[in-house]
Amino acid sequence: MMKIELLQESLSKTTQPIAISSANKTISWVNDAFCNLLSSDRKKLLNYKPGISKIPGWEALLGDNQSLYIETVDHTVKLIMHHSCTLESGDDTYYQLHTYIDQSEKIELSRQLGDLRNRLIDSSLRDPLTNLLNMRAIKMLLEPQIARCRRYHTPLLIVSLKPLFTVNQNQLDFHAEHIRTIAKELKGILRWADQINIDEFSNFIIVAPETDLENSYSLVNKVRMHFRHYEWLDEICFGITLCNKSDSADSLLNRAIVALKKSHSSPDRIIKL
């Protein structure tokens, strides 16, 4: 047993919020950390008994051992882990010792780390110039699309396209500006279900679900008509392929890129494989 005064003295300087209540739950002592936790004045807390007056957060903090949310007087919501135990003083009087751990900062740090992790994952899946999904991302997304294509016997079309500029494509500023323009314009003219991606060679890859080869020319013509008045754009080459039952994401994309390369020497700049 320890006299309650000695215990209070030893706990007064700790940074962990601590309160002591009597057997009838009247608050007899709190440390500075507890006052800071509730953003409340010590005079309001001492001799406080639940039901007599309202101190935000304290009603919940007198409950069972558990983690709980409280709202302080400045309307800050905190997640607090509460633990209590019974103490016996030297004069056979019993007290309740309440200790509290503020988990809010830990939760917030975990949330920030989660957001950072998600941003890092997202940045690894996107092209830094256009913010379109890159080839790593499209391979991940294609597998369930291919599975759906097999399950429901629906077509899945892949259209690869390469813009040919009227000036030297090695002019990096020129190239970057117009690749961004094409990416933005493609988003506006294609269906909501069509996924636009880009590889490291600035080849655009369009994944068009429930689109067959017969409708592929409609897609090609829509793109060509939209970009026909851009003076800096000479031509657009297209490689078109349809998903087969035996395809994987890799084989489907490889075939689309092969078709695109062959389209450069085709009279109409279109190759279907």
Question: How would you characterize this protein structure?
Answer:
With 273 residues, the protein is α+β, with helices and mostly antiparallel strands. It folds into 2 domains: 4-104, 2-Layer Sandwich (Beta-Lactamase); 123-272, Alpha-Beta Plaits. It is 40% helix and 25% strand. It contains 9 helices and 10 strands. The strands form 2 sheets. A 5-stranded antiparallel β-sheet has the order 2-1-5-4-3, sandwiched between helices. It has a 5-stranded mixed β-sheet with strand order 7-8-6-9-10, sandwiched between helices. It is elongated, with a radius of gyration of 33 Å. The protein starts with a helix and ends with a strand.
Key phrases:
single chain; 273 residues; alpha+beta; Beta-Lactamase; Alpha-Beta Plaits; five-stranded antiparallel beta sheet; five-stranded mixed beta sheet; 9 helices; 10 strands; elongated
Task: Explain the layout of strands and helices.
Layout: H1 4-11, E1 18-22, E2 27-30, H2 32-38, H3 42-45, H4 58-61, E3 66-71, E4 77-88, E5 94-102, H5 104-124, H6 135-152, E6 156-165, H7 172-189, E7 195-198, E8 204-209, H8 213-227, E9 233-242, H9 249-263, E10 270-272
Parallel strand pairs: 9-10
Antiparallel strand pairs: 1-2, 1-5, 3-4, 4-5, 6-8, 6-9, 7-8
